[in-house]
Every structure is written in C-alpha cells, then in structure tokens.
Hints:
Layout: H1 2-16, H2 19-30, E1 50-56, E2 65-69, E3 72-77, E4 81-87, E5 90-97, E6 104-110, E7 115-121, H3 128-138, E8 143-144, E9 159-163, H4 168-172, E10 176-177
Parallel strand pairs: 1-7, 4-10
Antiparallel strand pairs: 1-4, 2-3, 2-5, 5-6, 7-9, 8-9
Amino acid sequence: xxxxxxxxxxxxxxxxxxxxxxxxxxxxxxxxxxxxxxxxxxxxxxxxxxxxxxxxxxxxxxxxxxxxxxxxxxxxxxxxxxxxxxxxxxxxxxxxxxxxxxxxxxxxxxxxxxxxxxxxxxxxxxxxxxxxxxxxxxxxxxxxxxxxxxxxxxxxxxxxxxxxxxxxxxxxxxxxxx
Length: 178
C-alpha cells in the first residue's frame, strides 16, 4: 500500500509540474479536431445575449482546464488567460474539466444583455492555513459557486467562482486572450 501511495505521489508531482499537460496537449494536437467541437468566441453580443468570460488568474502549475456548458466543450483556460462566449438567457450547467480529478459542475442563471465573469481556482475548504495557501497560489477572485455533483467539490481539484461584474474588466485587462 505504501508503494502505491509513493507512485501516486510521483504521478501527482509529474502532472502538477506540467508533464501531464504536455503529454495531453501533444495527444490532443495529434488528433483531428471536429469543426463543431468548440463554439466561436467572436459572436457579437446583442441585447438578447449574455457574454460569459472564463479566466484563470493564478496557477503555480500549467494545467489547462476545459470548460463545458451543458456538456458541450466551449474552450479552455490556463493561468493568465481568458476566453469569452455569448449565450442566450437561461439556466446552464457549467463544468470545469480537470484532467487530474473529477469535474466541478455548477448551475447558473444567465440574463440577457449582461456580462458574467467566471474564475477557475481551487475549492475552498480544509484547514484554514491550507485553504489560505491554496487560494494564494491557485485561487480565484469572487465567490465559489456551489457544486451540483454528488460529492460537491471534495473530489475536484478545481472550482468555479463568480466574479463581480464591476471587478471583471480590471482583472481581464491584465490577462491574455486565449
């Protein structure tokens, strides 16, 4: 059992240091990408649509997280990057896909003509000192959204945060578009 724990730790460190991200990126690039896999990010925002920004402010490790809306891949983010999509009003299930852990899912209500900012970070919880360290190193601004999965955020290494619309533009101005 101890040997299994050692191997799991080695694999975790390898993945956190970018090895897993490099391997998964190489595999993804070698496979043909279907044209309908990701929605265009340059759709115009009208009064009937809402604009959703997804961003990753911090990250000690370079693991790219995929974003799905109602089960459909819409993009991915890495530290210091963001992307945006436009959606009609309604209730959506947003999933943050982490290649190393369970997905984090949350439901959000989207109103027409509004702009929303969603940050990707680590789940809050655990001992206070550890939670503070996690947030400083890999956290996000805003309020963590409640998970809709059976085990909540306990099985996920990432979480979805809603950032106040008044703070979002300043945060994005310091980042690069994906």
